[in-house]
Structures are given as structure tokens and as C-alpha cells.
Amino acid sequence: MTDTAQGTQDLTFPQGFRAAALAAGIKPSGKTDLSCVVSDSDCTWAFAGTRSTTAAACVTRNRALFSGDGPVRALVVNAGNANAATGQRGARDNADLADAVGSVLNVPEDGVLTASTGIIGHLLPMDRVLSGAEHLPEELRAEVAPFAAAIMTTDTHPKTAAVTLSGGARIVGTAKGSGMIHPDMATMFAFAFSDARVDRDTLRSAFPGIVNRTFNAVTVDGDTSTNDMAVVLANGEAGEVDPAEFLAALEGVMRELARQIAADGEGATKLLTVRVSGARSEAEALSAARTCCVSPLLKSAVHGNDPNWGRVIMAVGRSGAEVDVERMTVSVQGIPVFAGRPLPYDDSAVSASMKAGEVVFEVGLGVGEASGESWGCDLSAEYVSINADYTT
Amino acid sequence: MTDTAQGTQDLTFPQGFRAAALAAGIKPSGKTDLSCVVSDSDCTWAFAGTRSTTAAACVTRNRALFSGDGPVRALVVNAGNANAATGQRGARDNADLADAVGSVLNVPEDGVLTASTGIIGHLLPMDRVLSGAEHLPEELRAEVAPFAAAIMTTDTHPKTAAVTLSGGARIVGTAKGSGMIHPDMATMFAFAFSDARVDRDTLRSAFPGIVNRTFNAVTVDGDTSTNDMAVVLANGEAGEVDPAEFLAALEGVMRELARQIAADGEGATKLLTVRVSGARSEAEALSAARTCCVSPLLKSAVHGNDPNWGRVIMAVGRSGAEVDVERMTVSVQGIPVFAGRPLPYDDSAVSASMKAGEVVFEVGLGVGEASGESWGCDLSAEYVSINADYTT
């Protein structure tokens, strides 16, 4: 992940990809809110969208294109308006946006993916969106920074990660963060772009597992937004790569983005990491870890540097994951606090160790060999003030 | 529910029931923390306990007695210590408490139910608990108030409800509240006592449904504590009753207690009620309503009097309940805001209507005839300060 260190400012897209961003007037702030990424050639791609039964128009359309199975070349993103719960008019607006961006980029409409993020229940200002779209070609460039900024909503900073494979091919990822809990802001977008040539079936079969171990592990409030999506586009311009190396690198990029999303939670002051081992299955390990990360109670304790490990016992217990309490173990920042029974420990020492940028709980379920990790953030009073008065 | 109006202070138990409460020194505050209820005669009873896989010793033991199928006559409760995650020693302590209370009350050990609530992961101070138990008989009386107070933890006031059936038999209920989110304080106890004579099988078959529509509808943070339990004891001393009238009255008492629990959430300033109709099944209606009530995002909007109904769309969407968004309806305090598409409404008028003691959202899913209701509370910054520093 050496590229990550270079930071968002200097980061460029892989070969054949360019992006454009501009302010179309969707965000009241006047910040950039309409952007696109286009590839010079067709891309092998994979998609994962929200399981919400009230999914937004963009998710429904992308899912249909994905099952349609054709290649894509472009992605258009608007921030500031989720175009969700907007009825059939919203679906038409979404298709019109894809059509308009496709024609200015010379890409067929069904080669253009769409992504909208922002408040639910408001129609897109199509006049501004469409006139903005006409100017996207003028803004196309290789730099990632303008795109990474234009997809943000309440994020405090852009989120990117990148890696170079042994053969020189690259994977560049960008994401927009979930705050700790603001799913109506379309919690999560994750986009990965690569110039590697990768087999379509290999990518499609591996992608769901990668998403499950990375972005689905960072659903910090258990809420699933109407607009969540993860997309990977590979245009093959850098030639063949080792599939195993590519998939591992892709998961590394997505894991890094997931951690950045968790750490940038609304009102968050630290990253919460829960590692579960000894589970009967990876699914149960991830469920137990996630249930800890979504517990407002545990998150509050982490905020207060309170080593209240009983809240981990509670969260694991209600996750439904099989556990042998007699063999169960819990440690906080590496300090064992429970092993089938409460262990003696220095309250103030453990509390002091929790005053770090990342607080790690390690939990052993004692029933199997599977493991899983989840990321969240602490819960602060600032979160409430952020979310108690959003629309009004 | 006329008896409810008389208030906790004057409330007495049904015929043949007496209760005792004293301070055994479990709570650092020195408040009453050890209590019991005993019936002069054997009781028909029903029990519902937490589904947590890390259930406390009291839940495990009561569940075993319930499957054992014999009558019970007494219930002993300690507050301030959950006796959960305390290993085999904790299980022995729990059995020893039942044994000690049984002998001073002349009830066989397997006729005594146990209930512990408080912090997880600490052994019971058995010396103080057992010496306290010896003095319980001296404190036995017909008044409910001392018992209702002794079972509280962070509750701000005792919770009781009572009803008199047409034939004169009574049902008296007491509960300890969940704060909005403090499951390690053993979110919820609900105990109902009646002098009605009710058929064992009738009671046992109806109880799970009643609990599901009342206490399970008030799991405001989705967390399931290690100690949650609901118990109903009927000693038959007032003679036969109409089963249908009894079960309806019991559900009324439990519904009233559930609403009191929700309204007394930690840091709560108002009750949140979500009514879902047009669902495919009662289970899906309850799931959709619960998912709205547990959403920290919606709860924050309610706290800020923010009519951000998009958060209802989100919560229903992720609940998994089947919905036809084109036929879906949402109203806030009786004001329609969504009907397949956003409806025009006066933001400030809706916001003003939310400055009430109870905020009601009514949601139509448009796919069936089933309905369900759930209760929660708003999320305030005070919640975080309450929970950020509990043990230390």
C-alpha cells in the first residue's frame, strides 16, 4: 500500500482513467457536487449495492446493468441529494442523468453507472444537474483529488487508497464516508479503479466476499442506507496480472478505505476495532464483531475510556454467534480482562491505554477456528448535535 | 386500567401476594437492592427470558424451572449486580440465593425464581446478600411501592400498572426500565402478579405473543441484555376468570409498563411511538416499527424536532419488511409527509408539533393488512455522558 502514503493530493488514476468534478449547484454550500470517472476503454466490473428494500434509483439501475452483464466505461456521481424515495420521477431523472453524461462522454447510456448521495426525499434539480453535466468533459484530468472531494457529503476529508501490483498495474480506490450514523446521507460509496486485466468471472465471484470483509464490516450503526454501493472497474490497459495478487491487493485497498470511513465517523474521536476469533464460521465472527461496533453502549464506553468489557459480553451475546462463555476471552488494548470469568486488572491502566487513536477489543468465542474484524468509532455528544437538526 | 391512576404509592398486591425489600449493601448508594415477592399458595406462571447466548445465571435457572413445569411461589430480585459473565461460581451463587430465600420463606428452592440486574462481570457479594435474605420475612407487606423501588437501577422512577377484572380479580405489574441504551444494566424486568385462577396452558401459550407485542417492541437500541425477563404469576385466590378478558387485561398491563420503560430512557425527553400498518405479517410490521425506534438517527431527529422523515424510509428499508414504495405512506404527528412521493408540508408546523411529550410516526407499507407498534425515546447528548463513564 505504498501509494497510500503519497496522499490524495498527488494521487493519479490508473492508465486510461480520467475524472472530472464541478459545482452544479446541488450542495447549498456551493462546493463541487457533480463528478464522473471515464475509462478510454471498456471495463470489467463488479458491483455490490444496498440490500435496503427502499433502495435509491441509482442502486436499482446499477443492479440491473450488473445483471445485464455488459461492460461499462463511466461512472457519474452527484452529492447533496440521494434521489431516494422520489418515486418514478426520481427513476427517470436518474436515467436522464446517465443518458446526458453518456452523450457528452461518447459512452452508451448503459455503459454509465450512476451514484447519488445526500438527503432522502427530494427531487434532483435536473436543470442544474444537466447543464452541469455538459461541462464535465472540459474538466477531465488524471488527478484523483477533485473527484475524491466532489463525492463527499459530511465527510471531514477525502478518502483514498492505492496500490501498485508487481507487474506495474495499479488499483486506486476512493470512498465517501459514513459518519458514525447518518445513513440518510447515503452512508457509503466505495469506488476502485484499476488498469489491470482481470477475468470477469474471477472478479465477480470474489467481490461479494471482499465487500463483506471490508465495507460491510463497517456498518457502524447497523443501518443500511438507501444508496450504499461499492464498485470496481478494471480496464486492462496495464495488461495481465496474477489474479490472486490482484484480489488480495483489491481487498487491501478496500480494507484501508473501510478503516478511513470508520475513523471519520460523525463526532468520532477514535477508531474502534473489534477482532473476533474462535468462531464457528466467518459469518458468525463478523456478526459478533459488527454487533460490538454498532453498540451505542460500547461506543460510549470507548469515548469515555471506560474499560466496561461487560458491554462486549452483552453485544456478543445478542449477536447470535455461538459462544462457549466458559472458554470465552476478552482483551482491551491487549490487556486480558475476561477468560471464562472476570480477570483482575488495573482499571486506571486499562482506561489510560484507551486514550489512543484506535481502541482494539479482541474476543475469543471458544467454539471454532474462524475469525473476523469490524471497525467503528466512538459515540460522542457531538454526534447528537450533528444529527438532531439536519433538515431544519 | 383505572387502578393505574391511583399511582404506585397506594398500590397493593393481589390477594395472597406480599413483598419485602431491604438494603443488603449491593448498591454503593445504599438504596434498597434486595427484594422478594411470595404467594401464600402455588402459582400458575409463565416466563420469557433473553435470547442472549451469554444469558445470566438467573435467566438460565428460571428457564430450566419453566421447562421443568412445576408451580412456583416466590421471586427474589437483586439490583446493582447482574451476576452475568461470572462463570460457574456465579451459577452457584444464584442457586444459593434461591435456596436461602426459599428456606426463610418456607418455599422449596425450585419454587423460587431469581432475577439479578446491574453491572456485568462482577461476583455477587454473597455474604451481604445471604445475611440480607435472612431479614426479608420481617419486611413482608402488601404494598407494591417498596418492591417497585428496590428493583430499579438507573430508572428515574418506579414503574407499575394494575387492572381489576370484572369478577374482582386483579393484575398488578411492576417493571424496571431500560434506559434508552444500557443493556449491561439488564435492560428490562417485567413482573405481573394476579390472584385470578387461569389455566396453565392458556397462560403459557398466550404469553410469548403478549411479550412480543409489548416488551419486545421496546428494545430501543436493538441490544438484548444478558438478564432481560418477563414473568407472570397467578395464584388463583380470586377464583375463575374469563380467559379472554384476563389475557387482554394482562396485555394491557404489560403494554402500559412497556411504554413507561420507553419513556424513561436514559437522557430521554420524549416518548417515540411508531405505528406500522399495511404489512405482510405482524412480525414484519413489528420489525419495521422496531427498526425505526432503534435508529439513533431517527431518535436524534426526534430530539431536535426535525421532521426528517427520510430517516423513516431508511429504517423501514433496512428492516427487511416487504414494502411497496409507490404505495408507502408516512405521517408525523398526524401530518402526511410521504405517499409514494414526497408531499408538500410546512416544515415549521411539523417541527412545532414534534415538541410534544410523545412523537408518533404512522407508516403504511402498502403490501398487506397486518400492523404493529413499537416504542422508544429520543436520543440526547445526556445519554452519552451517562454511558461514557459508568464503571470508572
From TrEMBL, chains A, B:
Enumerate the catalysed reactions: N(2)-acetyl-L-ornithine + L-glutamate = N-acetyl-L-glutamate + L-ornithine; L-glutamate + acetyl-CoA = N-acetyl-L-glutamate + CoA + H(+)
Q: Which GO terms describe its cellular component?
A: cytoplasm
The protein's site described by Involved in the stabilization of negative charge on the oxyanion by the formation of the oxyanion hole is found at 117-118
Q: Which Pfam families match?
A: ArgJ (PF01960)
Regions crossing the membrane: none
UniProt site (Cleavage): 186-187
**Which InterPro entries would you find in this protein's record?**
Arg_biosynth_ArgJ, ArgJ-like_dom_sf, ArgJ_beta_C
Q: Which residues bind substrate?
A: 153, 176, 187, 266, 387, 392
Q: What is its main location?
A: cytoplasm
Active site as annotated: 187
- Report the subcellular localization: Cytoplasm
Q: Which residues form the signal peptide?
A: none
Database matches in SUPFAM superfamilies: DmpA/ArgJ-like (SSF56266)
Q: What keywords are assigned to this protein?
A: Acyltransferase, Amino-acid biosynthesis, Arginine biosynthesis, Autocatalytic cleavage, Cytoplasm, Multifunctional enzyme, Transferase
Q: Which Gene3D superfamilies match?
A: ArgJ beta chain, C-terminal domain (3.10.20.340), L-amino peptidase D-ALA esterase/amidase (3.60.70.12)
What is an example of a GO molecular function annotated in this UniProt entry?
L-glutamate N-acetyltransferase activity
| CDD domains per record | OAT (cd02152)
According to UniProt, this protein's pathway is: Amino-acid biosynthesis; L-arginine biosynthesis; L-ornithine and N-acetyl-L-glutamate from L-glutamate and N(2)-acetyl-L-ornithine (cyclic): step 1/1; Amino-acid biosynthesis; L-arginine biosynthesis; N(2)-acetyl-L-ornithine from L-glutamate: step 1/4
- What Enzyme Commission number does this protein have? 2.3.1.35, 2.3.1.1
> What's a single GO BP term from this record?
ornithine biosynthetic process
Known role: Catalyzes two activities which are involved in the cyclic version of arginine biosynthesis: the synthesis of N-acetylglutamate from glutamate and acetyl-CoA as the acetyl donor, and of ornithine by transacetylation between N(2)-acetylornithine and glutamate.
Family from the record: Belongs to the ArgJ family.
Assembly notes: Heterotetramer of two alpha and two beta chains.
Instruction: Give the protein name, as stated in the record.
Output: Arginine biosynthesis bifunctional protein ArgJ
- Which organism is the protein's source? Deinococcus hopiensis KR-140
Gene, per the UniProt record: argJ
